[in-house]
Design brief:
Two copies of one chain form a homodimer. Chain A is mainly alpha-helical. The first copy, chain A, folds into two domains: 1-52, Arc Repressor Mutant, subunit A; 61-188, Tetracycline Repressor, domain 2 (Orthogonal Bundle), CATH 1.10.357.10. Helices cover 72% and strands 0% of the residues of chain A. The longest helix of chain A is centred in the middle third of the chain and has 26 residues, at 54-79. The N and C termini of chain A lie far apart (55 Å). The interface between A and B is medium-sized, with 34 and 34 residues. Chain A binds a DNA duplex through helix 2 and helix 3.
Amino acid sequence: MEDRSYHHGDLRAALLAAAEVELTEKGVEAFSLRSVAKRAGVSHAAPAHHFGDARGLLTALAVEGFRRFLATQHRREALAAADPRAQLVAAGLGYVDFALAYPALFRLVFSSDRPDFTDPALCQAGDDAYAHLADQVTAAGGGPLETAAVWATAHGLADLLAAGRLKTLATLPPEARDSALAAVLTRSFPGS
Amino acid sequence: MEDRSYHHGDLRAALLAAAEVELTEKGVEAFSLRSVAKRAGVSHAAPAHHFGDARGLLTALAVEGFRRFLATQHRREALAAADPRAQLVAAGLGYVDFALAYPALFRLVFSSDRPDFTDPALCQAGDDAYAHLADQVTAAGGGPLETAAVWATAHGLADLLAAGRLKTLATLPPEARDSALAAVLTRSFPGS
DNA sequence: CACCTCATCTTGACACCGTCAGGATCATGG
DNA sequence: CCATGATCCTGACGGTGTCAAGATGAGGTG
């Protein structure tokens, strides 16, 4: 649609896109609803009709974040061998990929209480992400405890790398870094 | 000192204490400097003289957070066997203890960009915490890569548990939970 | 085609926030 | 005893989220 008319046409999508830019540039803690509206070329109260309040907008963004989180993992898995073990490692590498490619979204989804995590859509998206990991662990012959172990390892690596800590790994060339990550991930799963 | 006089006497400490309460009750993202001043029974501009701005106050709080982080680990280590391996696991358990006992401080220190991490005192405190972990890994016969592995595992467990994810482990009774955590931590270190 | 209804968007107001400037208060040392 | 400086307060400014009320226009109904 044109951005000419009084009625925007697809303001909801435009606001979501603007919100992601805002989030990426300013971070979760300096996120401003009025600034998002300004980016979308719309009045400061316009977002309210589509998302209720700032929390609602960030909740919708978090849903999109989870979606992209899974997509990033799938991309890694498609490049890996078919056996469950390799798929599990690929999922872990995708976990890290997401944190490094979209650090602001990563923060929003995993280290923020601004989104409403009781929202049905967000719950669903989060459960989907967890289910994917649990399925992979199960396929590789693991149980709940192994799921926790793999998840924690992947999450720890991703969070520390995205935060700029773990310079030991961050300064490595990509392939060396990936193999180091794979080694750590593999180790977290028993019976290797 | 009395809270009677015009000059507070120890306002800096009082503000730090009030800031921690504020942080615990409202979280990093809803932290308000004026509210902290109100808690301390002082005008809204009083904190500026001691901490410069809100960032300065949160930076000072983060330093205290790192201090308490190390203290929590030391408490676990004192209860563990003397051998390096057991000490390393104890440090990991202390990592988790801290995240669960002071989730807001944990967020401030590890998942926020509000403190000024270029501040000398905060850098020092962070380096101290890292050095402690690195020393433990070295004592147990590990190198930089092992440090990264152990750190990521402990951090992932702590962060996910503090965020209320990982219900598998969170619902376990304390001793069972600790032994499960110890198993995951041990696994992250090679040659067990 | 004319009209009406309702979703959509704007304007304006309010309370709260962080920060700065300037004034009030008090402790301390010459 | 008084002056100086550290400490704290008051008041103001721009920015933020949210609510109420009004303007706009799209789509269905007569």
